[in-house]
Specification:
Radius of gyration: 14 Å
Distance between the termini: 20 Å
Number of helices: 2
Largest sheet: 3 strands, antiparallel
Mean pLDDT: 78
Low-confidence stretches: none
Strand content: 15-25%
Number of strands: 3
């Protein structure tokens, strides 16, 4: 089942729902009317974890950064994807 379904099922009370602001609306609709940018990461381009949003920025933001609590092991390679919605 899609993560989007679960984000709305629990009224936005999930890690992704909180980042998207869904708790403010009870998970019923998309609260970012102007859209947003979402940051994802994976060990390779074909293994990006699209079920885990690392960070969210406004649609017109010029930068988006992973939060400081996300580990980055030295010697490891990560691929990041920004999705606009």
């Amino acid at each position: 089942m899609e993560a989007k379904f679960f984000d709305s099922l629990y009224e936005g009370d999930s890690p992704n729902g909180a980042k998207l602001g869904m708790g403010l609306t009870g998970g019923d609709f998309w609260p970012r009317i102007a859209g947003c940018q979402m940051l994802y990461r994976g060990p390779s381009l074909d293994k990006i974890d699209f079920s885990n949003i690392l960070a969210v920025a406004e649609a017109e933001a010029s930068e988006i950064w992973p939060p400081s609590y996300v580990p980055h092991s030295s010697g490891s390679t990560y691929f990041y994807v920004v999705r606009r919605a």
